[in-house]
Every structure is written in structure tokens, then in C-alpha cells.
Protein: L-threonine 3-dehydrogenase, mitochondrial
Amino acid sequence: MLRSTTTSLLASAKMLRQPLASTTTPFQARFRNAAAAASTSRLFSISASASSPPPPPQHYNNNGSTKTRHPRVLVTGSLGQLGSGLVKELRSMYGAENVVASDIRKAPEEFMANGPFVYADVMNYSALERIVVDWRIDWIVHYSALLSAVAEKNMAMALSVNMAGFQNMLELAKVHRLRIYSPSTIGAFGPSTPKDNTPDLTIMRPNTIYGITKLHNELMGEYYREKFGVDFRSARYPGILSADTPPGGGTTDYAVDIFHHAVRHGHYDCFLSKDTRLPMMYLSDCIKGTVEHLTYPTPLPQSVYNLAAVSFTPEELTKEIQKYLPHFTISYPDEARPDFRQAIADSWPATLDDSMARKDFGWKEEFGMENMVKLMLDKIQAQVAAEKKNATAAEAKNASMAA
Ligand SMILES: NC(=O)c1ccc[n+]([C@@H]2O[C@H](COP(=O)([O-])OP(=O)(O)OC[C@H]3O[C@@H](n4cnc5c(N)ncnc54)[C@H](O)[C@@H]3O)[C@@H](O)[C@H]2O)c1
Structure:
């Protein structure tokens, strides 16, 4: 049973990589022509963006109109760890008015000042449709989700937000002919997936709610692309590190928390074992890869790509931090009583093969372990210094008022 399911998954996945060879549907024919055109334009459209600034803003021609303009993008879940950075980048490319940020939480003042922000619950199809129509949206970046650790504790909500919410966005993309980018995750793999250098196409039997919902979405996106011609794009992100935005409840969150604890307290109680190797990436690389993928002018050979940068264990990360903070110490859980996130981490790959993303849209990371650790520490040390300065100023003000 496992073998036949896996074989059929592999076979259908293989077919996705062969649309240039034998295709029949109108979308596939369109895709074949577009892909042929892309292969000649790839050199100047993508590889230039791999090392420095993002690609220049594209002019967008929707439905054969003679007027060109920038695409108008709706970003869901934009107040999360990844959304605000992506919104900022897209606004610098396309103009603030062309990027509509959304979430179900109140945005901070400074976020509201930088461009349109609307309430959008991904469970409410008609409210979402109204936003698409009112704002004349062309592309959706769908970031709303419950991450691995949170999903495991809230199964019903994870099924709703991650699957029904995604289905709403996919349906909107179909009805209104939108491009849709919705990230997947290393969590879509499972314990029977080969752990090292895990390729795009392999055994996928996730055993977490997060992974199951994300694999479901990958397959639904591929189905909508084949059946209805929806321009569905997705990348399997590794754990993302950022100093400015807090992580949203994933299993890789330790790799962010450790820096805050190292700088503020000199010690960290890690919830994973010291030798748990997981793929990771610095936030700006994630944004760069996402923008390169999202803006690629034509549909790519695959709907879903692995995206990778570095892989490390808590012990290796600790050693790198100790180069700057030699007194930093770390402790690990008792092996007999592991944290519930250990089982999740153990079901994920240790390293990813992302060679197809590198080949097909020019993906290349800028941050390795060393420059990422240095930057995280610099940023958090600057935050702590600013907090101290503000606290001292507030104390002085209180003292002068009391006098
Ligand atoms: N951060 C990572 O390390 C990582 C790794 C792999 C994949 N991803 C994927 O990237 C995407 C963004 O992740 P993130 O880290 O920014 O997540 P996050 O948890 O930080 O943010 C998710 C956002 O979704 C919003 N949201 C929740 N329910 C909603 C609803 N019903 N309607 C609208 N919005 C709702 C939340 O308010 C939150 O702001 C997700 O799809 C996630 O699965 C993230």
C-alpha cells in the first residue's frame, strides 16, 4: 500500500517535471510555449538577481490589456514572522499602493503608515473576494497558517486555517485568474523520507497535522494548475531565522530564541536535543528567494521547489555563538523526557537538495552559518542597547518629574 501510494505520487510528480515533453491540455500547451520563451530570457531575467538587488519591477499586462502596470499583490498573514519583510520588499519594487497587506490582528502604527492594510480572515471567502475585486488584485501571497507546534496543539483550527483557508485562496485564484504563491515547508516530508539531501520528489508521508495540511495544499495547488491553469507557486521553506520579527510557533523556533537568550541571559534551555540537524535560512534570503520565485515571468517546470541555505544542530549553533559570547551556556532536555517538538523535528529532513530551484529560477542564498550568526547577534545586541537607553531616559524623566 505504502509502496503503491508512493510510486503513484512519484509518477505524478515526475510527470510534472516533463510538461515540455508530452502535454495535451490548453494550460500545458500554453505553459510549454511560455517555458520555452523563459529558457531564452532566463539569463537576463533571473540570474542577475541572484547576487544583489531584487529584479526590477515588472510591468504587468492583465487579460490582454494594452496598458501595462505593476501587479497588485494581496499578502495574507502579513503580520507574521515572514510577512512584514516581504510586504516591505514588494512595496519597494511595485509601490506601496500596489501591495495590500492583511491579517486578522491589529497592525502596529508604523505598519499602517507604510501602505494599505485590511482585515482579511482567510476563512471568509466572500470577504476575501471583495478585497480582490475592490483592490483589483493580480497576485496573492498566502502566508496565513498555523505553524507546526501550534498546529499540533490546535488540530481543528489548523485544519481550518491551513486547509480550508488555503482552499479559499486557491478558488479565488481560479475564479479571478490570479497568480498564487503559498509556501510549503520541510514539515511536508515525514519520517520515511530520506533524511539527507532530500530531493523535491521523494517519499512524503508526514505524521504531523502541519505537514499533512501543507502536503495537501501542495497537491491541491498542482491539481488546480493542471486542471484549471492556475499559476500556483510554492517553495518548501526550511526554518527561518530573523532578529526583528518573532517566530510564530514552529519547531525551528529554538534557532531564533537561542540568540535572544544568549545576549540577554547568557544561557538557553533548548527544547531539542543537541544533535538535531535541521535546514535553516536567514529571513532576507527567504524574502529574496520568494521574490525571485514569485516574479518569475512564466510558470516554472515544477509547482513546488525545495529552498535551502544551511543545516546545523543546536550544538553547532552554540559553538558558533560562543565565538562571540564565550560565556554562553546551553542545556538540553532529559533524553528520557523529550519535549513534544523533538518527535516533530525527528520526522523532518536534515539537509535538502534544492538544485532544481537553483537551476530553474536562479536561487542562491547570501547567508551561511557564520555571517548569519554574526548578523543575528549584532541586531539583538543593538536592540538590547536601545532598550537600556530608553529605560534610562524614562527613569531620568520620572526622577525629574518627582523632584
Ligand atoms: N517561519 C518559518 O520558519 C516557516 C518555515 C516554513 C514555512 N513557513 C510558512 O511560511 C508562511 C508564513 O509563516 P510565518 O512564520 O510568517 O507564520 P506566523 O505564524 O508568524 O504568521 C502567520 C500569520 O497568519 C495569521 N493568521 C492566522 N489565522 C488567520 C486567519 N484565519 N486569517 C488570516 N490570517 C490568519 C496570523 O495572525 C499571523 O500573523 C506560513 O505558510 C508557514 O507555514 C514558515
About this structure: Residues 76-77, 79-83, 103-105, 120-123, 143-145, 147, 161, 165, 183, 185, 237, 239-240, 247-248, 250, 252 surround nicotinamide-adenine-dinucleotide (CB under 6 Å). Residues 2-238+281-309+356-364 form a domain with the Rossmann fold fold (CATH 3.40.50.720). The mean pLDDT is 87.
